[in-house]
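Appendix B, record 7
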Amino acid sequence: MKLNSLAPNARYDLEHGKPSVFEQDNDGSNLYRYNIEPEMGIPDGQTEETQVGWQCREIRVWEKPTKAVLKKSVIHSIVDESAEFDIVNSYNKHVLGVKLDTTAVDNYKEYLQFTEDLDTMLISDFSTLNE
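Structure tokens (predicted):
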């Protein structure tokens, strides 16, 4: 569950340029895009790989896009609430000796690192709004 290794779920062509991180859609929802990177490919009739567009992860929220709203939405786009609950409970069971499971510790550390990386990314992205 590495934030920067999540597979893109949105693609944009070069004609419209690099997509913005935050965008309000016409239907009243808000889009948040992260891990925006050039998409490379070999266009028809060419032999060299070149940039053919942009790829990113994208989520849509209907609330005001605050750090808390986006954090919850990004997490639940990767891990649903029951899986998140299971990660925490398995760790607690291990720590309290209810059910020893060393993989629960590793899974919980990975989850905590994911949330830490997400916090850092969101703080950085929100700081660009004020520039």
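Remarks on this record: Residues 8 and 56 are 5 Å apart (CA to CA). The longest helix spans residues 102-127.
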